[in-house]
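Supplementary notes for students who missed Thursday's class. We covered one full example, reproduced here. Read the sequence, then the structure, then the short commentary at the end.
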Amino acid sequence: MTNRTRTATALVVLILWATLASTAASTRTRWTTAQLEELRSMSITELPPLPPDPTNRVADDPRAADLGRRLFFDTRLSSNGRVACSTCHQPERGFQDGIALAVGVGTTARRTMPIAGMARSPFLFWDGRKDSLWAQALGPLESPVEHGGTRAQYAHLIAAHYRRDYEAVFGPLPDLSAVPGSAGPAGDATAMTAWSTLNETLRDLVTSVFVNIGKAIAAYERHIVFGASRFDRYVAAVTAGHPGDDVLTEDEIAGLRLFIGRANCSQCHNGPLLTNNEFHNTGVPSRPELPLDRGRLTGATTVVGEEFNCRSRWSDARQRCAELDFIVTGAHTLDRAYKVPSLRNVAERAPYMDGGQLATLADVLDHYNRAPAAVGGHSELRSLRLKSIELRQLEAFLRTLSGPVLVDGRAAAGATP
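Structure (token representation):
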């Protein structure tokens, strides 16, 4: 064979190798039109403008948001002076705490939920027992294991330290001179007795201040959002006609294919926030040291009779409460059903599930792959029968969903007062 022949042969081999490699890469990253539309629908850029909150007239008032920000970090909003909203919702951790059960003045029975993007959720908490951000903010304030304080205590705090800013948003504070320092419908026996001695007018005046605290905090929390992740950059690339192989690895892309395909993750984790905001029983084990939690079965009934729900006299909407109008209660399918959390930044939020029962993402994927029977109610899961390599690829993809958590466009870690 002459040198010229050897050179020509080598050139043909190189061209063939390059063609095969290019074809393989093209096959690996090729998406159908329907798949591209699904990927586009999951991009953070597809998130529509934040809708108004008719239950909270100051939801979009910058003065209310500024007041709410300071209240969010104020440890005086607790019975021991050491617990603030930010104790569990830590900006540097994406507004969650990284532990199995939240700890305030005591230890709770649930995992802290992240609050980024929660302004778009019709129901709050793992069981959906609140139907607005401001109602959600009020719950922990009176919980004996979270903030542990009372309505009167908080009203006096506003009068002593936030009067001017409060009145700029909500109007004049009521006269609290006849109100004890600690009184409320929840709390210790002394506080509850003090509350019962107040006439209805005084109780309403104190409650109005308490409600406005929640509405100010909610105005701040509306600005806590997810930023773009590597996944979003990948979607931008492939929907613009680029391969995107320089954004995600081969395993991450394979995991994405499983996510929207055979693993069926996107049935519940869909849309720009990767949640359908619904409630499902997925057979998560209970914590043996705690009473059996019925999840949405209890939460749905609770929110209908909730003191501060959309229909209450404390709501600024009252007549426009579609979610409550069509809520389902008492159905056996709600037993141990829990809210589907957003998967954005999921890799930063171990441990997982309503009580932190699963320690790692690998544990979560193993649980969904095995689909064990539920300890209560009926699990909706069916075994995925995925191979070990496919589980690793799914986990690799889930890690691409990490991005910044932003407050008014700034990184959350810099959001403290």
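Commentary. Residues 3-29 form the longest helix (27 residues). Residues 31-50+229-295+335-403 form a domain with the Cytochrome Bc1 Complex; Chain D, domain 2 fold (CATH 1.10.760.10). If anything here is unclear, bring it to office hours.
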